[in-house]
Amino acid sequence: MGFLGEIKSVWEHICTHYKPGQIEIAGVIIAQIIGFVLPAAAYLLIDVLFPEFSAKHKIQSMRRQPTTAQIWHCIKISMFNQIWVVMFHAVAVYLTGLEHSLLIMDSRLPSLKTVAVDFLFGLVAREISFYYVHRALHHPSIYAYIHKMHHKYTAPISFAAEYAHPVEHIFANILPIALPLTLKGTHFLSLMAFTVFELWEAAADHSGYDFLKLPPAEIHDLHHEKFRVNYSTLGIMDWIHGTHVVGWDRPQRKAAEQKKD
Question: In sequence order, what are the residues at sequence separation of 6 or more whose Cβ sits closer than 8 angstroms to the Cβ of residue 58?
Answer without folding.
Answer: 65, 155, 208, 209, 210
